[in-house]
Amino acid sequence: MTATTPAPQLVDDATAERLAAALRCVTISREDPAETDTAEFDRFVAFLEQSFPLVHAELELETFGHSRLYRWPGSTAPERVSALLLAHMDVVPVDDVSGWTHPPFAGVVDDEFIWGRGAIDDKSRVVAILEAVESALRDGVRPRETVYLAFGHDEEVNGVRGAQSMARKLREAGIRTGLLLDEGGVITTGVADGIDQPVATIMVGEKGFATVRLSVSDPGGHSSMPGKQTAVGRLARAVARVQDHPFPLRLTPVTVDMLTRLRGFMSEPRRTLLGMARLAGPAVTRILAARPQTEALVRTTTAPTVFHGGVKSNVLPQRAEAFVNFRILPGDSVADVLAHCRRIIRDDQVACELTGITSEPSPAPAAGPDFDLIAELAREVVPGIAVTVGLVPGATDARYYDDLAETRCNFAPIILTAADLDRIHGTDERISRLNYARLITFNRRLLDRLAAG
Ligand SMILES: [Zn+2]
What we know:
The chain has 453 residues and is of the alpha+beta class. It has helices at 13-23, 38-51, 53-58, 123-138, 163-172, 231-244, 253-263, 270-275, 281-289, 292-295, 334-345, 371-381, 418-423, 433-451; strands spanning 60-64, 67-72, 77-88, 108-109, 113-115, 145-152, 177-188, 199-206, 208-217, 221-222, 301-309, 315-316, 319-328, 351-359, 386-392, 405-416, 430-432. The chain contains 14 helices and 17 strands. The mean pLDDT is 93.
């Protein structure tokens, strides 16, 4: 073990202030790039260049819009790539500023926290990675094999300009990496049922994503002579059928692995029951399906989210439409989702089509060869934790790089409660000085491992 990097303490004021300065840049990404305030992104990248001089003197940099791909050549085997560290600089907008303790882009630092939009998702990871690389360079630490850093500028609007372009560039250059590390899993406390220890969930893949639009058109007319059903009634029936016929429950290899790793930390009778997980699959899947948080692990989920139709209470609607959002379990596909809707609805008056962004689930997510390294570093930074695998319920930039890596991990070693999780994309996003220190130490120790002989 490389014991040179000390255990995480609270970050000092200067380090906290550097993150706060990053949070003051209003780097909100928009679906329509024309609506993006590019001056704020310019300000953010200027801040990076000024704050991390060694990084910018010694690493090669290529930009893709505001996205930044850094290459840190290996000292002994530069033609090989050991790690690709991803993070994103953009953030989601703030709905209601009034609920915030401090304005979301003020970048306030107090004795315990650094406050602001992006404090967790995901500027803390951009800046922590750079803090780690800068300190490694200062200490003369160099990776044996090449390391890439890739910071996207449009992850929150699907990464089609940033991550997708950077991944394409690496693919075209024939780059293959051992480790791909991105945001996603964290260490939670009080979230996993029946486990007292904090649980680190290192996510090894992600669910897919699709939205199906159901629509009905009708001649309309006066509501006094409606016929058998209106467009609204017909659509309501279709939505109800989709909701009442969910995808089947299914225990995937990742979920089995997750439970196996957690088993030893559980109290009886769960532990014994889980010992029979493969034999008693249906019992385990039923238990997981009982709560929405764990049901997402055992099926492609169905969520009717939008319903439009009608204009006035005494006018027959001419058109009604609904959106149903699906999060797709590995093993199912976007095409399966659409076919499922058509099969279940069985009404050719109801049109079904995909709308918006779609994303396939990770093909065969499993803990890769570098998983144990990430697990070990997590235990070093936060001793006494349970470590398991999981799937990112949403989409991250890592999906564009999936095929380039032997091991994919979506993980940051910060300890969050259920209430903290709600702050992500929510109100009062903040990171504690201690969590931020964990993040920097974790990244630095990773670099030490990639350097050590
Ligand atoms: Zn994010």
